[in-house]
Amino acid sequence: MRSHLLEGKVRHRRARPFVYTLDHDVYYFALDLGELDEVVGKLRLVSRNRPNVLSFRDGDHLDSPATDVAAEIRAHLRDQGVDPDGWRLTLVTNLRVFGYVFNPASFYLCRDRSGQLQIVIVEVHNTHGERHLYTLRPERDSGTYIASMDKGFYVSPFIGAEGRYVLRVKDNPASLRIALDMSEEGELLLNTSLVLRRLQLTDRTVARMLTRYPFVTLKTIAMIHWHALQLWRRGARFHRRGEATAKATPRAGDGAAR
């Protein structure tokens, strides 16, 4: 199978109005969307749309929510003027762990017939249950996939309504690195990165991830609130959701780089 696991670190560094850094060990599933049924048929601890220790639910993705992620992402690409016939679509995300999941961001890596990364769809979730898609094309030909988009979605009370993101992806055979810089008024505010190595997807590696990172999705939401408390205690400016969404109303597909 082309589907596999990813293990490594997530790092955040806030540059203003004070420096604040964090890093955590994490793992993700990298699911080839053409193999979803094959994955759950092979792995005893993983199911699709039904309870298990780990569960992939189509409805946890896209704004609809989705009933068939693979078909709906292909339809989304066609709406963006792209013919994805023969493309490999890989979703980098966390699954439900004992029924619970929260993914701040999932990534759809869309590779053409030759395996070249052509489009990255970033699916962002906030703690209010809202979802938003950014559909990005590379802005220049280089060894690193680089794209940018304007902020169009409320994600944090400590980030303003307006800003710009720059996404960088290094898509190597043995590793994956995703970096996202956010700037406000031309100055860097936040750098976030995932530095991950690829692992074979087997019952043994899945069990090892569960042992090493138990309740990883609960830890994600707990750490979001813990770090928010630290930012608030240090005096970071608080932006109410209503104020932010009045300036930037989320719309699926906003931010497409062309």
Features:
258 residues, alpha+beta, ten-stranded antiparallel sheet, three-stranded mixed sheet, 38% strand, globular
The computed structural class is: alpha+beta
Task: Give the mean pLDDT.
Answer: 88
C-alpha Rg, in Å?
A: 18 Å
**Secondary structure tally, helices:** 5
Largest sheet: 10 strands, antiparallel
Indicate the percent of residues in helices.
10-25%
Low-confidence stretches: 244-258
How many domains? The number is 1
The total count of strands amounts to 13
* β-sheet strand percentage: 35-45%
Strand arrangement, largest sheet? Answer: 9-8-7-5-2-1-13-12-11-10
Shape: globular
Order of helices and strands: EEHEEHEEEEEEEEEHHH
List the helices and strands and how they pair.
Layout: E1 4-14, E2 20-32, H1 36-42, E3 46-48, E4 54-56, H2 69-79, E5 88-93, E6 96-97, E7 105-111, E8 117-125, E9 131-136, E10 145-150, E11 164-171, E12 175-184, E13 187-200, H3 203-212, H4 216-233, H5 241-247
